[in-house]
Specification:
single chain; conserved putative lor/sdh protein from methanococcus maripaludis s2 fold; Elongation Factor Tu (Ef-tu), domain 3; six-stranded antiparallel barrel
Length: 350
């Protein structure tokens, strides 16, 4: 008669289990700005280095201001000249108006003086607009950062000529990485579940950079966006999570493992996934009794997560199940809990 069958065992545990969706996502900058010149000119000075963190309002680039200073002085001179001419024209208008009232001046003289004054008033308005335009253009010689972010590669250097709003001549691209987005897609069959979970709730999202290092930290964020259409080509829909990214572990363009938590199931029974066997009648586990005899027991299983399988029905918390050695077992077989080289005598799910 053969002796007890050596097996490894673990205990069924009861805990709250999150209902989650997993996907591979891509990190996306919170905002991206291509810095371009709004005027034609020569780059006089660069005030940052590639890869620098910049703040909103920081001076990035100076365009040679001398042509624009000269244009402003010319516009101001034209304004001063036309202001003096207008003063003279207004005086003439008053004088001819007085003479017309006294009956010693002609209507034609007054009308001519009035027309001249009105024309100069229009010229004055154009001169003020020209001064304002020149001031604006002079202000454009100082290019400042529109956002907080990190500067990328410098495309143009001091001495290069730039053209106004030239799509092909961005000086630098700035990415805002604090906060930052993670973009991911899930199958359309989960759309209803995600929308129901979002109703009145803020859903948690975690992102873990894909790395060979086992101790890579997981970043925590929240779901902020669900696309308004399903991609007919892929059968998925797009979601975005927002992360504070204060430690800057997430980087634009990086691939990450994403977990979206929809809800939680309390009082859920879990056993190690290797304890669950499949037979002709469905899933079952071997349960070890106090007398160290093993009996197969049918179970209804749910999802698997982190090496654990949810048992919907068939097992109670605290019962002992066999996790290794099932091939030699039969109903009522005696077992002996063995000790693996790197394991204690009993595997207990934690």
């Amino acid at each position: 008669m053969s002796g007890p069958v050596p097996v490894l065992v673990a205990q069924a545990v009861e805990r709250t289990v999150p209902i989650q969706l997993k996907a591979i996502g891509t990190v996306e900058a919170y905002s991206t700005v291509s810095v371009r010149s709004q005027i034609d000119g020569e780059i006089a000075e660069i005030h940052f280095r590639e890869g620098d963190d910049v703040k909103k309002g920081d001076l990035l680039v100076t365009i040679d201001p001398r042509p624009f200073q000269a244009a402003l002085r010319q516009a101001e001179a034209n304004l001063a000249r036309d202001r003096a001419q207008l003063a003279q024209a207004v005086n003439d208008e008053k004088r001819y108006g007085y003479l017309l009232e006294q009956g010693v001046g002609s209507r034609e003289q007054y009308d001519q003086a009035h027309a001249t004054a009105e024309a100069l008033r229009g010229t004055m308005m154009a001169d003020r607009a020209a001064v304002q335009t020149a001031q604006i253009n002079l202000g454009y010689t100082e290019i400042r950062s529109p956002i907080d972010g990190r500067a990328g590669n410098l495309m143009l250097h001091a001495g290069n000529l730039v053209k106004a709003n030239d799509a092909g001549s961005a000086i630098v691209v700035i990415n805002q990485i604090r906060p930052i987005y993670v973009d991911f897609n899930v199958p359309e069959k989960d759309l209803g579940q995600v929308r129901d979970a979002m109703n009145g709730h803020q859903l948690a999202v975690t992102a873990r950079p894909r790395s060979r290092q086992a101790d890579v930290a997981t970043e925590e964020g929240r779901l902020t966006f669900i696309d308004n259409t399903v991609n007919a080509t892929t059968g998925t829909f797009e979601l975005k999570g927002l992360f504070s990214n204060q430690a800057e572990r997430l980087w634009p363009g990086q691939f990450v493992d994403v977990t979206l938590t929809l809800s939680e199931m309390p009082d859920t029974i879990l056993v190690p996934s290797q304890a669950v066997q499949t037979g002709q009648d469905g899933s079952f586990v071997f349960v070890v009794a106090h007398d160290l005899s093993a009996q197969p027991r049918p179970v209804v299983v749910g999802d698997s997560l982190d090496g654990q399988t949810v048992i919907k029905r068939g097992i109670k918390a605290g019962e002992t199940v066999v996790t290794d050695g099932q091939l030699r077992l039969f109903p009522g077989a005696k077992v002996k809990v063995k000790r693996a080289l790197d394991q204690p005598a009993q595997q207990v799910a934690s």
